[in-house]
Amino acid sequence: PDKFTIAIDGPAASGKGTLARRLASQYGLHHLDTGLTYRGVAKALIDADEPLDDVAIAERAARALDLGALDRAVLSAHGIGEAASKVAVMTPVRTALVDKQRAFAATPPGAVLDGRDIGTVVCPEADVKLYVIASPEVRATRRWREIEAGGGTADYARILADIERRDARDMGREDSPLRPANDAHLLDTSEMDIETAFQAACKLVDARL
Ligand code: C5P
């Protein structure tokens, strides 16, 4: 086959991003963090002083988004994740971004995409699907450590509350809610370090190569 697709879904701070990057580098595949596309739309609206819930304006921003110009350093700010989950409930925004994500996945030799709806909506024919979870407490602790390690200060209770609110919005929305595809492999990283999770994922990929 001329392309191989790995779909990785899961909630915020589950470890799916690190896993996706490592798998892409291990198998020589492109990598797209699709969360950055929703974040890019949210950031464009914030910068232009536009509301986050105007469908026509948000759709235009989504259509104008250039996948090649997404800057992780700017877009990974904590508050942008919350704004991204608001623009992500709008179907016209999702349709525009999913088109771009599918075009990315179609480029040989294929790609690892991580997000919320990759295995269910964006790439339902993916060769390998992983659904990565961890308890909200473990995820909040990871976020907290990341922020502290970067020299910032963070409030654990607030991070946990943010994570739970974002989970609820992502799992509860009508269009493309966060849920495992029927044929996804579940990886619970609550008590598993990233190396162990990576080894487990490689076994699943190797079995499909
Ligand atoms: O993964 P990340 O935290 O960067 O995603 C930000 C937000 O973008 C998520 O909370 C979710 O609402 C939205 N998203 C989505 N579908 C994806 C990826 C992200 O709805 N495939």
Which terms summarize this structure?
single chain; 209 residues; alpha/beta; 5-stranded parallel sheet; 54% helix; 12% strand; globular; binds cytidine-5'-monophosphate; EC 2.7.4.25; kinase; kinase activity; Cytidylate_kin
Question: Could you please describe the fold and organization of this structure?
Answer:
- Strands 2-3-1-4-5 form a 5-stranded parallel sheet, with helices on both faces.
- Helix 1 crosses helix 10 (194-206).
- The mean pLDDT is 96.
- It has 10 helices and 5 strands; from the N terminus they run E-H-E-H-H-H-H-H-E-H-E-H-H-E-H.
- The chain has helices at 16-27, 35-47, 55-64, 72-75, 78-87, 91-105, 118-122, 136-149, 156-172, 194-206; strands at 4-9, 30-33, 110-115, 128-133, 185-188.
- By secondary structure, the chain is an alpha/beta fold.
- The relative contact order is 0.21.
- The protein binds cytidine-5'-monophosphate.
Short description:
This protein has helices at 16-27, 35-47, 55-64, 72-75, 78-87, 91-105, 118-122, 136-149, 156-172, 194-206; strands spanning 4-9, 30-33, 110-115, 128-133, 185-188.
